[in-house]
Amino acid sequence: MITEKIHNRFIYSRRMERLADIFLKYIPNDCKSILDVGCGDGKIDSVLMTQNPSLSIKGIDVLIRDKVYIAVSEYDGHNIPMQDSSVDIVMLIDVLHHTDDPEALLKEVTRVAGKYVIIKDHVKSGMISYFKLRLMDYVGNAHYHVRLPYNYLSIKKWKEIFNACGLKNEEHTRDLNLYSGINHLLFDSNLHFVARLRVSGGEVNND
Length: 207
Fold this sequence. Notes:
By secondary structure, the chain is α/β, with parallel strands linked by helices. The protein has 6 helices and 7 strands.
């Protein structure tokens, strides 16, 4: 498929490298166990563990791809088959906008996270941004048969959801610089964010 080839050649590798750099900075030194919810092929997790061998990252997803780079288990998209506070960090990389109810999944993620939730997702700030995000979503995901509800949220709505889940925004950035050339001009701007959110009273349960 031509869109897949274009995406892989001009977008995928740079995006993965940039996100890995950002996530490495956002993972505190005392955090070692990580669950990546909606991990896809797990390539970014493999990069993170290569660059920081002290990390142990496992993934879950509703679709298991033919080629994966980490251990990935299937789940139903709603209920995570893990105990409360069982990992240091749960990551969600461009996952919540693929759900009908981002708050419900984020609450489930918060249950499992002992210390932090790290999110990379999109920000909608009007109809132009909405259609840009739709285009990016389709080109990047349609060939993997990923569900595309195009459920993009405003900054105000993200803050409401974080508060409802008892998450404190400790650090965030919207300067991701994921793309180069014309793609940077069209699709970077303020369409993306990464946030490290602290779980209220968070502590890992080692039982």
